[in-house]
Amino acid sequence: MIHFTLYKALEILLGEREQRRGNVRVKIIKRNKKDFLDLLLLADEQESMIDNYLERGTLFALYDAGLKSICVVTDEGNSTFEVQSLATYEQFQRQGYGKRLLNHVSVHYKGKGSAMLIGTGDVPWILSFYESCGFELSHRIENYFIEHYDRPMFEEGIQLKDKVYLKKDL
User: Fold this and answer.
1) Backbone φ, ψ for residue 145 (5° rounding)
2) H/E/C letters for each residue in the chain?
3) What is the pTM of this model?
4) What is the pLDDT tens value at each position of the chain, 170 positions in all?
5) Which residues in 114-126 are b (16+ Cβ under 10 Å) and which e?
6) Geometric angle at alpha carbon 54, from 67 and 26, rounded to 5°
7) CB count, 10 Å around CB of 139?
8) Domains of the chain as residue ranges with CATH
9) Measured between alpha carbons, how far is 19 from 34 in angstroms, rounded to an integer?
């Protein structure tokens, strides 16, 4: 009992909460979120856009013998949460870390809301990835990347124009 109480006190003191599954751990980061800026910039190349959601969002970090992947989730009201950013270090991509983290986030928010949204560029392989994680096409905002970013955004040679939203029921 004392060990558990000390552990909880340490969690509160550090501002982090951790859940383990095997060697993989997912932590909720509450302090020093900008320490993860290098990974956040892989998902959203404009720091001012990250600043719009980072502090109001919940930052999840996935570790497996070191940091592998992060995502930020915001509460958009009306029982809807939005994944604002999902990134995995390039050398660890296509190893299941992003999918594992999205699954963890979905389980974390189940019962706390009715839907999870993800907005992304109109890039076939990215849309296919999110669909493989149980998300379905929802809607799009035309010219979002052109109107909200200070320079043209590209993903694998494709200029991003519309923001495509995918949705998953919780």
Assistant:
1) -70, -30
2) CHHHHHHHHHHHHHCEEEEEECCEEEEEECCCHHHHHHHHHHHCCCHHHHHCCCCCCEEEEEECCCEEEEEEEEEEECCEEEEEEEEECHHHCCCCHHHHHHHHHHHHHECCECEEEEEEECCHHHHHHHHHCCCEEEEEECCHHHHHCCCCCEECCEECCCEEEEEEEC
3) 0.83
4) 444 443 444 344 444 444 445 689 999 999 999 999 999 999 988 899 999 999 999 999 999 999 999 999 999 999 999 999 999 999 999 999 999 999 999 999 999 999 999 999 999 999 999 999 999 999 999 999 999 999 998 888 889 999 999 999 99
5) ebbbbbbbbbeeb
6) 30
7) 11
8) 18-169 (3.40.630.30)
9) 21
Q: Please say whether the beta carbons of 69 and 56 come within 8 A.
A: no
Distance CA 130, CA 102 (A): 9
Under 8 Å between Cβ of 115 and 169: yes
